[in-house]
Specification:
CATH superfamily of the largest domain: Retinoid X Receptor
Protein name: Retinoic acid receptor alpha
CATH topology of the largest domain: Retinoid X Receptor
Number of helices: 14
Order of helices and strands: HEEHEEHHHHHHEEEHHHHHH
Radius of gyration: 36 Å
Mean pLDDT: 74
CATH class of the largest domain: Mainly Alpha
Number of domains: 3
Largest sheet: 3 strands, antiparallel
Biased composition (Polar residues): 464-474
Strand content: under 5%
Keywords: DNA-binding, Metal-binding, Nucleus, Receptor, Transcription, Transcription regulation, Zinc, Zinc-finger
Number of strands: 7
Shape: globular
Pfam families: Hormone_recep, zf-C4
Structural class: mainly alpha
Main location: nucleus
Low-confidence stretches: 1-38, 57-83, 425-474
CATH architecture of the largest domain: Orthogonal Bundle
Length: 474
């Protein structure tokens, strides 16, 4: 039929009329090809003007000249849907203007790779402020682009990436987001409210908020990554020991934890201690300066954290900290998530995993109620927060391996509490208290079976740690 878009579509039944070339231009009208007989189409064709260079044929049809045939051939290739056109060659972009990696297209005004596109978008959308720890002339290429965020952002701006394009792109996406119907949640049961309050208080009293700390840093040491900085390690190991003590104190304050069998308390503490320590330090991440702050206010940048003992674990921890920022967790959520990390029934060697699971259930419910109440328009935030436990476990597994390799790098012996709590072991026996009843950095663990039995409210790992949290330096 003759389509109204001006292109000629011939059915199989009308193909191959002898001596009748296709019309030199489209036929317009509301009629269809079916209304024409062969003779009527022939008469209509005769009435059409000739293409320059075309001559009438002897049989009444027109015979095109070579030039006209070329024009018609070109026209039929353009208009016939059945003509096969050669495939277009793949589009080749210039290398990324920022780091010279393979470009994925033009983003925000320049040819760039996916990595630099995403980095620039995040930096502008979050109004990131970076700091160069050298002379602001760092080389930015495929290998070094992640080393200095300040110089990478400056390079993005130098090559012409547009901040306005990022803002416009963000506003367009916001317009496309469908409105979420706000559903009024029923109030949490009083017992969940009480549990939430107690866990939050336990978290805050054993882990000061970042805004409560007076930050300070250590200016000595290498500005580049080294295997280990002895001065930083001494400070870091001392702080780590105190952080472990506070983690034990936090565990004792979680409702129901002290009712578990002593061996199960030890197993859970040992399995989750590194999870909680990493989660806590990552909530004190300052993205503007790429630093983390310890409980006494010591603030270290990425290089210093590496040299203090984190080593190959450094970038994993900083990446996890960056992932927490969009979640916007407060103290209550961090405390509940820490408690859920601790009280989980899938740890090996538990005597009564079902009891542990029963203790975890109200913690999960409390976190769900609190997250949904705080973010009624974001129903998927609760599972997102909960899934961070999987990431924590992956980092902790590598952290336990790091403790083993660290023993070969440090100048002296590993502080016993760090080794016992953070290094993988075959059982809970290594976590019994010292003969004096307190956990110290010098006393050797006493595994004698003649030690007086601890009560259910006084786990073997925490005998002698009944003092208030303020008695232990953060």
């Amino acid at each position: 039929m003759m389509a109204s878009n001006g292109r000629s579509h011939h059915s199989a039944g009308h193909r191959g009329w002898p001596g009748l070339p296709y019309p030199p231009y489209p036929l317009y009208g509301s009629f269809g090809m079916e209304a024409f007989s062969t003779q009527s189409f022939h008469n209509f064709q005769q009435a059409l003007p000739l293409i320059p260079g075309q001559h009438p044929a002897a049989n009444g049809s027109s015979t095109p000249s070579p030039a006209a045939m070329e024009m018609q051939s070109t026209s039929s290739e353009e208009h016939s849907p059945s003509s096969a056109s050669p495939p277009l060659p793949p589009r080749i972009y210039k290398p990324c203007f920022v780091c010279q990696d393979k470009s994925s297209g033009y983003h925000y005004g320049v040819s760039s790779c996916e990595g630099c596109k995403g980095f620039f978008r995040r930096s502008i959308q979050k109004n990131m402020v970076y700091t160069c720890h050298r002379d602001k002339k760092c080389v930015v290429n495929k290998i070094t682009r992640n080393r200095c965020q300040y110089c990478r952002l400056q390079r993005c701006l130098e090559v012409g990436m547009s901040k306005e394009s990022v803002r416009n792109d963000r506003s367009k996406k916001k317009k496309d987001v469908p409105r979420v119907e706000l559903v009024e949640l029923p109030p949490a049961p009083p017992e969940l409210e009480d549990l939430t309050s107690r866990v939050c208080r336990a978290h805050q009293e054993t882990f000061p908020n970042l805004c409560q700390l007076g930050k300070y840093t250590m200016t000595n040491g290498s500005g580049q990554r080294v295997t280990l900085d002895a001065d930083l390690w001494d400070k870091f190991s001392d702080l780590s020991t105190k952080c472990i003590v506070r983690t034990v104190e936090f565990a004792k304050r979680i409702p129901g934890f002290s009712t578990l069998a002593i061996d199960d308390q030890i197993t859970l503490l040992k399995a989750a201690c590194l999870d909680i320590l990493i989660l806590r330090i990552c909530t004190r991440y300052t993205p503007e300066h790429d630093t983390m702050t310890f409980s006494d206010g010591l603030t270290l940048n990425r290089t210093q954290m590496h040299n203090a003992g984190f080593g190959p674990l450094t970038d994993l921890v900083f990446a996890f900290a960056s992932q927490l920022i969009p979640l916007g967790m407060d103290d209550t959520e961090a405390g509940l998530l820490s408690a859920i990390c601790l009280i989980t029934g899938d740890r090996p060697e538990l005597e009564d995993p079902s009891k542990v699971d029963r203790l975890q259930e109200p913690l999960l419910e409390a976190l769900k109620f609190y997250v949904r109440k705080r973010r009624p328009s974001k129903p998927h935030m609760f599972p997102k927060i909960l899934m961070k436990i999987t990431d924590l476990r992956g980092i902790s597994a590598k952290g336990s391996e790091r403790v083993i390799t660290l023993k070969m790098e440090i100048p002296g012996s590993m502080p016993p509490l760090i080794q016992e709590m953070l290094e993988n072991s075959d059982g809970p026996e290594a976590l019994t208290s010292t003969s004096g009843g307190s956990c110290t950095t010098t006393g050797q663990p006493n595994v004698s079976t003649t030690q007086p039995a601890a009560t259910a409210s006084q786990p073997a790992t925490t005998v002698g740690l009944e003092s208030s949290p303020t008695a232990v330096a953060p």
